[in-house]
Specification:
Length: about 280
Amino acid sequence: MRLLFFIAIFLSSCDKEEQANSQDSSIPIAYRQTKTITYNSINVDLVVDKPALNEVDVLLVFHGTVLYDSSLMTAANNTLDKFKGILERKDMMIVSVIYPQENVLLGDNIVQAEAALLWIKNKANQELGIKVKKVFLGGHSQGGYIVTRLNTMHQTNGVIANAPGPLNLVYRCQLEERGQIQSGAVCTKLKSVYGTTTTNSTAYFQRSLLNFTKGFKSDILFVQGLSDAPIQLYSWPTFKQDVMSCTNCQKSQFVEIVGGEHGSLFESPQAKTEFNTFINSR
């Protein structure tokens, strides 16, 4: 009888431990992890930075240009940290997209970017065991190019683009062809497929951000430092005017930082304030 009594106590304690473990698993935890996701047969890696909450708004961010895909992980983490550093809210999940660059033409990586966005909107709830509420997009440099293009494709709760570009690939690649600036990977790859800007300027323009200034589906905030590189500032007034003239766009807001450089969103107190105001008002 005593043996049966101790067995009963042991089994009871196991049941309590199992219940406690079950309860513990439901407690929200904070973490940062890298995850490979698939949407519509497109694979892409994400860095997920989750607060200790199970119901979250999401800021989906995109890094700038890197030369080699071996640098993508570092770029994605750095970009996540930069956005996290200026975000006043501590209850948002930030997800940084590790979209490819080395072996694709500029613009073709919109496929991976779109897959990441659609996964957040349609599959993250189930696969991460959370409830996604609002979704915002944020991008720096080429990442700003990506989120601006995504804004012509899918609705979100808002988009932030810092120094988005390249704005005008015809102008940029033509300078390289003439030897006026150093050749870069973006124009070199385009030239290998399309030839020069003189023989096929349309192909270059179609991939320029100047070609994506209509049909914005969500409100968008553009931040641009006015001491950025001349190649960016050359086309900035045209881009701004084209966006402001759009008749089928949601609201566009421009914050121009006098003396600001390429990373103005992360460096300017004014830009940081406008960034948080934009998110908190939506």
